[in-house]
Amino acid sequence: MCDEPHPLLVKSMLGHCVDGNIDEAYKVVEQLWALGYSPEDIIGNIFRVCKTYQMVEYLKLEFIKVRQSSAASFFIVLFLNLLTSPCALIL
User: Tens digits of per-residue pLDDT, 15-71?
Assistant: First the structure.
């Protein structure tokens, strides 16, 4: 296994987000998680792929802004960790 998710998978996830297909984007992230990638690797790769992805500039800036926000990154990591923790879903 590579240390980071394949950029083509991340690119497909970004494409789904841009098209408004959140369920499909979630499936890609879920697949990356199932392959054993850490939340930090997934988030970092999304940021790198986003910088070169062809999309409207304001959307690209929004993706980058979220990545640079430490609070947003924390909550994304927390969400990804919850995907595999059934006990966390029982409040």
Answer: 998 888 888 988 998 899 889 888 888 888 888 898 899 988 888 888 777 666 655
DSSP per position, 49-90: HHHHS-S-HHHHHHHHHHHH-HHHHHHHHHHHHHTT-GGGG-
- Rounded distance, CA 33 to CA 81, Å? 9
Q: Any idea what the Cα angle at residue 47 is, between residues 63 and 32, rounded to 5°?
A: 105
Length of the chain: 91
Judge whether 81 and 39 are in contact, CB under 8 Å: yes
* Nearest-angstrom CA–CA distance, 91 and 79: 15
- Predicted model pTM: 0.70
Of residues 27, 28, 67, 26, the one with CA closest to residue 46:
67
Q: Comparing C-alpha atoms, which of 5, 15, 4 is closest to residue 63?
A: 15
